[in-house]
Description:
It contains 4 helices and 11 strands. It has helices at residues 130-135, 138-141, 143-161, 165-169; strands at residues 15-22, 25-37, 41-47, 54-55, 60-61, 66-72, 77-83, 89-97, 101-103, 106-119, 125-128. The protein has a 7-stranded mixed barrel. The two termini are 15 Å apart.
Amino acid sequence: MSAPSAEPPATGADLVHVHLVKAGRTKIRYAARLLADDGDRVTVRAPWAGDGVRDFGFVRFEPGDVFTEHYWRTRWYAVKEVRAPDGALKGWYCDVTRPAVRSGTDLLVEDLDLDLWVSADGTQVLRLDEDEFAASDLPTTDPEAATRATHALDDLEHIARTTGLTELTAPAA
Length: 173
């Protein structure tokens, strides 16, 4: 599936504002095009919303990149398919989050620090930010959420290493 960056901006019924919250503060807010909402999974598409280039060493997010993002109301993670401007798959960036909440055109997602990167060919599966998670207050202030978060990261890694993320993010039949 190609995701050209020249897509017209989302407007009206297909507009969603994604609010990524971390530690009670809005980390980033951006407009996205609503692709689907089946009552559990909300799928949106948006261009890279960061300022300039973000080089992680294992992948670079840069202007023109397109993110097809999958959020669930019943799962503790989000999976973001990342494509270059020419449509080439870079990989999947997965955020461990509380289940997403959609209200009208707003999609609220609470980031819980843990992340997973999976390269386009599936050979590189990297657990990220476990040090940030350990240093956060979550294990103390909300041990149940902390347990769910670590299980979500384990589940994502298992899926990535066995069946891959393509099936998880495929459009509903």
